Amino acid sequence: MYNMFFVSKKVSGLSMETLNYYGYVLQRFFHEIQKDIKNIDTNDIRYYLAERAMRDNISKVTQDNELRVLKSFFNWQQEEGYLQHSPARKVAKIKQDYRIKKPYSEIELEKLRRETTNKRDLAIIDVLYSTGCRVSEIVKANREDIAGDELTVYGKGGKERVVYLNPKAILTLTEYINDREDDNEALFVHLRRPHSRLKKEGIESMICELGKRAGVKKAHPHRFRRTVATNALNRGMPMEEVQQLLGHNDIQTTSIYAKSTQENVKADHKKYVV
Description:
The structure is a single chain. The protein is mostly helical. The protein has 2 domains: about 1-80, DNA polymerase, domain 1 (Orthogonal Bundle), CATH 1.10.150; about 105-270, Intergrase catalytic core (hpI Integrase, Chain A, Orthogonal Bundle). It has 12 helices and 3 strands, in the order H-H-H-H-H-H-H-E-E-E-H-H-H-H-H. The longest helix has 22 residues, at about 250-270. The radius of gyration is 21 Å and the shape is globular. It starts with a helix and ends with a helix. One of its GO terms (molecular function) is DNA binding. Site-specific tyrosine recombinase, which acts by catalyzing the cutting and rejoining of the recombining DNA molecules. One of its GO terms (cellular component) is cytoplasm.
């Protein structure tokens, strides 16, 4: 039934990356609890999450992510008839401290661009800033997914959507592609032979290193996504359209960026007006 859970999730469209994370969490949980699945109760799950927080010092975000995996697993066991009750149903969602995560400023973006040393890295920055894509979507994209100023990407669960390239992104991306000598179908590849498809970790590492050299704190790929969302909302784009742009299934996820925007306005009001 353990294997069938993963088969079920694979069929439902979860990515290999997500399935690997599920496997990591479940393996860690069962190693910690040391009980047969039918003997696990709600307190075992609470104990595990508390231990992870106190002993391993994981964040509330990580706690909640692991709880969601456990809920998904045990709820599926109940729904499929393997368990009479899911021990995870009564475990409350982990409350998280809300912190304002700032987008990149125009100066920070330009600093990052100026620190690039090759056409690929510059194109990646411009594409991330233009589209607001997840890094996982960018690394899966192929050259053939580009059509003029449109880029087709595949998000969570393999969901397809079209994102848009601004003139700057079109220019730097075209220059990068035209400069390549490999025949790999991937949109972004390693600079060295055999020019294999660039992975998520490669982009994260590259942007982190650019941030260090440019003096831009907390430089990370996801911050481009936050910047696109915040700027779009600030300039009046309806939240439903921002939701579509970012590929969010739930508009409540998009509303987080609106809350961040409002908090920034409030902070600036206190700073400059009051």
